[in-house]
Amino acid sequence: MENYILNVKDLTKNFGRLKALNNLTFNIKYGDFFGLIGPNGAGKSTLLKILYGIVIPDSGFVGIEGLNLKYDYKKIKYNLGIVPQDDNLDEDLSVYENLLIYSMYFGMHRKESMKKSAEILFFFDLEDKKYSKVADLSGGLRRRLMIARALINNPSLIILDEPTSGLDPEYRQNIWGRLKTLNEKGVTILMSTHYMEEAEKLFKNMIILNHGNIVMSGAVNDITLNKKSLEEIFLDIAKN
Amino acid sequence: MKIIKKIAGINSNLSSKSFTVFYRNYMVWLKYYKPGVIGDILEPLLYLAALGFGVGKFIHSINGISYVKYIVPGIIASSSMYAAAFESTFGAYTRMVTNGIYEAILLTPVGIEDIVAGEILWGTAKAFMSGAAVLIIGTAFGWIISPFVFFIPVIIVLNGILFSSLSLLITSFSPSYDFFSYYFTIAVSTMFLFSGVFYPVSSLPYLVKYFVYIMPLYYTVSIMRMLDEGRINPLTLSAYLSVIILFALIFFYASVFFIRKRVIK
Questions:
Q1: Interface test with B, best of A105, A149, A158 (most B CBs within 10 A)
Q2: Which sequence spans correspond to the domains of chain A?
Q3: pLDDT by residue (tens digit) across A150-164?
Q4: CA-CA distance, B80 to B76, in Å (whole number)?
Q5: How far is the C-alpha of A124 from the C-alpha of A147, rounded, in Å?
Q6: Which tens digits make up the pLDDT trace of A72-106?
Q7: Residues A203-219: tens digit of each pLDDT
Q8: Helix boundaries (H) for A107-168
Q9: What are the residue ranges in chain B where pLDDT is below 70?
């Protein structure tokens, strides 16, 4: 268990009659770039929302860095960077203010926040947009800011829910490069996507979900060993 | 027993992070404060001028006090009620539903309890700005001359907490902005007109008078009037303060419970 940053055991969630997640069990190792794929409605977002505390599971266990999410969610969040699917940047504030206020939620001091914000703006090539209002940013820049915001607290695990959804290829490549760099620096990443090309390029290990069940799991290379591509596997699963 | 456990849970999760939620709202307010301040401060002053001088021409005194002096404490209480109510309904709804700010904050170590407490602090600050403006004007014009005037800001704060908590509770149920019309028409306006802001509640018909006693604003107006007139009955004062605090606590815990239910699925 010590090698795992995330442990999920027998996780179940129902919305009325709909079984969103059905007894999911999987672990993620430290330093992994772990992927989550599956057709629409497979349960990807529900799973991620449980991990970041917006959805409460009906049963099961989630442990992050040895802490129980049910009881220690506030402690856990100090080491978690989260990029939800829906854009929830603070429209009334500038790019820089978004980072500053977010750092304050983590209890960071102003000097530390300013230093970290400057670093992040540089890393994401957002320095020239520092004082721009969020409302004036393009879709791609907003996504970059969402990811930048999730890094403000130096997280050891970043959870991203379809971070490149709806972006043009240039912006997508740009984000891939930055996520790869972060992973190379030792940050564990858990990410969902519906782009198979993205999954093949980025993920080391992954699970494929369908109807709330894990239908395949393992290293990406092992999963694609007997088939032509991840896309074909995905289509086979989606048909069922 | 279940309720006590829930309250204990809320208390143990409350932290100083609520001040960052307050600070976030303050940062945004600084960008747009001019039109807001004019509304919050000017409107109660207009009421004071129109009713105090206009109606005051015909009603020379109530309980031996000139009409304009009589309505000042009520206007302080009602203006702070309105400021808190607007901020914690329309403002809070925008943050919670339209802009997804609560969900963004919940991705950090800030909990629902902190968000609610921060929102109530912010609503109270808005209430204070509005109530204090009337208090300052009232004092400057010599309409408030009691030595107890310095306690009025404390009651404005309590009134702000009370009405921010109540309004946030309403927001937790609200399916849309339109829903607030019910709250403002049925609750807020009724309190404004019947809680003794403009005339003594004792002049109301028997049944209506008892209906007024369930209105939280009645208690803050009464305390402010006691302080303003310098006629303090310690027993009544402590009883009314207890009612305000009890109302505020009930509304606060209920807000935390129902906002959690709304935001976390």
A1: A105
A2: 1-78+193-240
A3: 889 889 999 999 888
A4: 6
A5: 9
A6: 888 899 999 999 988 889 988 999 999 999 999 99
A7: 889 998 888 888 888 88
A8: 110-123, 139-150
A9: none
Tokens describing residue B112: 């629902």
Which two structure tokens, joined as six digits, stand for A203?
């993920």
Contacts of B85 (CB under 8 A, 6+ apart): B163, B164, B166, B167, B183, B184, B188
Cβ within 8 Å, pair A101-B20: yes
What superfamily does domain A1-78+193-240 belong to in CATH? Answer: P-loop containing nucleotide triphosphate hydrolases (3.40.50.300)
Report which residue type is found at B175. Answer: P
Torsion-angle region of residue B62: left (phi > 0), alpha (psi -120 to 50) or beta?
A: beta
B106 interaction partners in chain A (CB closer than 8 Å): 53-54
**HEC assignment per residue over A186-203:** CCEEEEECCCHHHHHHHC
What pLDDT is stored for residue A70 in this prediction?
87
CA gyration radius, chain A = 18
